Amino acid sequence: xxxxxxxxxxxxxxxxxxxxxxxxxxCSKSSAPPEGGDIAKVAAAKGIEKSALKLGFIKLTDMAPLxxxxxxxxxxxxxxxxTLEPQANWKVLLDGVAGGQLDGAHMLAGQxxxxxxxxxxxxxxxxxxxxxxxxxxxxxxxxxWDKIAPGLPKGADGKPVHPIAASALKPAMAAGPxxxxxxxxxxxxxxxxxxxxAAGGITPxxxxxxxxxxxxxxxxxxxxxxxxxxxxxxxxxxxxGYSVGEPWNQAAVKKKIGSPVITDAEIFPDNPEKxxxxxxxxxxxxxxxxxxxxxxxxxxxxxxxxxxxxxxxxAVKILALPKYVGADAEVISASMTGKFTFAQxxxxxxxxxxxxxxxxxxxxxxxxxxxxxxQMRRWGQIASDKPDQWYFDTAKAVYRxxxxxxxxxxxxxxxxxxxxxxxxTDGFKAPQSGFIDGITYDGKQPxxxxxxxxxxxxxxxxxxxxxxx
Length: 469
Known about the structure:
Elements: H1 11-22, H2 37-46, E1 52-57, H3 64-71, H4 74-77, E2 81-86, H5 90-99, E3 104-108, H6 110-116, E4 125-130, E5 136-141, H7 142-148, E6 178-182, H8 188-199, E7 206-208, E8 211-216, E9 220-224, H9 230-235, E10 241-245, H10 248-255, E11 258-263, H11 264-267, E12 274-279, H12 280-285, H13 287-309, H14 312-319, H15 329-336, E13 339-343, E14 346-349, H16 366-378, H17 388-398, H18 401-413, H19 446-450, E15 463-464, E16 467-468
Parallel strand pairs: 1-2, 1-3, 6-9, 6-10
Antiparallel strand pairs: 3-12, 4-12, 5-10, 5-11, 7-8, 13-14, 15-16
Helix pairs in contact: 3-13, 13-18, 14-15, 16-17
């Protein structure tokens, strides 16, 4: 791997960022994309095994690559007739992929990873593409905000200084444990929320075998709530806060029922978020279909980030359609166009809140998968110690950069994306810093990384139905 600079990016990364600004946006075509019978002809010419596909998604703005690939004709260009179907929640989506009702889906990064670790779905899943970096936030209710706001450090403008540490919650915890929602036990949202709490000296609790609640020893109760239901659940007082993707944090601001306190980029800069996932059986049986899917999604990712985000306003209109996210365009725009609103009158620049193509966002790094595995182990979802090699083997069983690279290099050959947008890497990022707790993450040393945390399972500790031992 190239030598990294102090921010963890190598020279090739920087060059890619510069070239991205001048790369073709992908939306200008000399002719309209194929339709109907023409799609079938393209599929036949490419030898695509299955051209009519059904893909699942959850109503979140980071499903944008799928919606853009559909609406801008990138799927059709590749000979694919794709139907996009919203799912009720992440479990329903996962079951749909595992059972074959869906050919692939917008997935939480942790879902295929947990399956590979033997603690999730009982089917082998693969993730040949990362959909995005960043994109989540943690929101608290007005009741909690009113208790913590007076004690927050303020800047010269009178607004709270960011990032806000979880220790700020302690005045609101005086009357008893707070209740937070997150979207799924194996979600980045869960791990980001737990990471933030632990960094602030608050224990979020441990999972025990057969226990998906993860509340053993918890100072804050964390439960599952489907993303679109988050604002209503907060407003009803069932939860005191939540960790979720957009537009559901901005919806709380719009409805004046809560305030986001921190984004995931402030917890873990450029963290891996969603992936495009499918069963291994589908990938093996349909190799050319998979390549067509990846090519279309990579083109959509480039379109989303092209020329400093010039296409984001159009992306907002696409996502606002009822068949996709279905939220007000104003709410979606509040985080998708380089800004993030923390409260009424407190909108801040956030150019990296959603990254789809820059910083090699699409490449499925083994080190990203391993980070999720370390958090599964930290909180007891992985019940006992594993050697470093287990982490490497598990990551390589589910993340498939080989499939990504084949598709990306074919797009380079076609002149569709710049060569510098494809990383030269062994699959591991350089050691990553910037975490809210100041701890540096090195994906090549997972157990050494776990040993650095003051809160979390230690080497030699395990969990059983009786608790932590």
